Amino acid sequence: MIFVTVGTSSWDFSRLIKEIDRIAGEIGEEVVMQIGDIEYEPKNAKYFRFISKEEIEELYRNARVVVAHAGVGCIISALKHNKPIIVVPRRKEYGELFDDHQVEIARELEREGRIKVVWDVKEL
Fold this sequence. Notes:
The chain is of the alpha/beta class. Helices cover 33% and strands 16% of the residues. It has four helices and six strands, in the order E-H-E-E-H-E-H-E-H-E. A six-stranded parallel sheet has the order 3-2-1-4-5-6, with helices on both faces. The longest helix is centred in the first third of the chain and has 11 residues, at 14-24. It is globular and about 30 Å long. The two termini are 16 Å apart.
């Protein structure tokens, strides 16, 4: 199972969710997405907006791979569960955050070899 999470922020990250939903329609693996407050509703993957911390932890445990925004909590959870993580930073230029701190976090952790970063969702 591929677990996708955008964290608990109210900032829109439709760019990631739409691309993963497209991919989910083309692969033979279950995809479960935590989509937050976006308007878009996935058609090819299971999804939810928000659930309890315990339920999120269960998804991390059961995931083969995690795809997440560059939120520190998501990254730490994936690493804690020894799951490979693909990080797609939210970008200020797309109105996904007020600044590019996720880009900075992703660059540093990628430099350290801790995560795989995808800078363009089309590369997923």
